[in-house]
User: Which sequence fits this backbone?
């Protein structure tokens, strides 16, 4: 029987997001492909350090049990299988239950996302992520971080920006192109009952929300079960633009544990208390504040990224 993906949350992860490939990348950039291949072979048994998405991926995989697999993580790599061997050794070393991989040797791997039903692709290659977003695939670029994961802690805390991440950039466009805060707030008040369209990470969050509901049902049946996932919304919106957020999430039946309607307060000021294992935002300025301290993912989507300078 074929392995079924349609009933699972599938995440496609590049080796550059899962592990620290900064040294290998340096070899690739400075000495080109042959030297890179040689370097990876010579260091095959030298275990790679953890990357930006490691804390998220490890905890998501830990939600799976023998009876029920809710999450599938697939390595989606622009390496070839030969150099990819080092990555598989690291997967085994850290005890990650990842067994499936697609290697595309120098190509952009996002085009296989549909084939594996992936609702998120995480990569340390900005050009790959931008191209994926251009073709409407949900993808995020992991930013360098000094974060050190505390693996004794089993809870998984996710934090999401709202506009341009969970929902589309329609309201953001009113803000950016419609004359600023006051016209934007008026627009949002007038459209408070109007459902917002789906953004790049809508499906991912919806699936996370379904897993949360499953965890709550399990906890109700057996109070020794500890639900692991917590979700926070962290948005620059504040009243009166909050109402549309709440009504939209309610309509889509998405549950949120914590919500920060910040209205210009620095996101890092609340996130350093919440301590996310992953934070998603479409605006670089918000990501840059947080990325050093916590694993952060830039979604280069929509009007917020129209005139963005090339990063990195
Ligand atoms: Mg946003």
Assistant:
């Amino acid at each position: 029987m074929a392995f079924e993906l349609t009933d699972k949350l599938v995440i496609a992860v590049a080796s550059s997001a899962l592990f620290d490939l900064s040294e290998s990348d340096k070899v690739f950039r400075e000495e080109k492909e042959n030297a890179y291949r040689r370097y990876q072979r010579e260091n095959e048994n030298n275990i790679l350090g953890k990357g930006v998405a490691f804390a998220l991926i490890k905890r998501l995989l830990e939600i799976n049990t023998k009876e029920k697999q809710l999450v599938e993580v697939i390595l989606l790599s622009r390496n070839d299988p030969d150099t990819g061997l080092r990555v598989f050794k690291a997967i085994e070393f850290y005890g990650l239950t990842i067994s499936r991989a697609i290697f595309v040797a120098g190509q952009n791997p996002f085009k296989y996302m549909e084939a594996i039903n992936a609702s998120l692709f995480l990569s340390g290659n900005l050009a790959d992520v931008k191209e994926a977003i251009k073709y409407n695939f949900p993808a995020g670029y992991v930013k360098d971080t000094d974060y050190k994961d505390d693996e004794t802690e089993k809870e998984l805390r996710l934090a999401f920006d709202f506009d341009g991440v969970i929902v589309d950039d329609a309201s953001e466009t009113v803000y950016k192109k419609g004359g600023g805060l006051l016209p934007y707030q008026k627009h949002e008040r007038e459209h408070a009952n109007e459902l917002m369209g789906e953004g790049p990470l809508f499906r991912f969050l919806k699936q996370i929300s379904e897993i949360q509901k499953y965890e709550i049902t399990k906890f109700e049946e057996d109070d020794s079960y500890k639900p692991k996932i917590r979700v926070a919304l962290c948005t620059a919106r504040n009243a009166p633009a909050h109402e549309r957020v709440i009504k939209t999430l309610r309509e889509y039946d998405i549950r949120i544990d914590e919500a920060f309607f910040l209205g210009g307060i620095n996101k890092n000021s609340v996130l350093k208390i919440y301590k996310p294992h992953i934070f998603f935002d479409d605006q670089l300025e918000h990501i840059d504040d947080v990325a050093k301290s916590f694993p952060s993912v830039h979604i280069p989507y929509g009007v917020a990224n129209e005139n963005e300078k090339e990063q990195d």
Observations:
- The pocket of magnesium ion is lined by residues 161, 163-165, 281-283, 304 (CB under 6 Å).
- The longest strand covers residues 71-77.
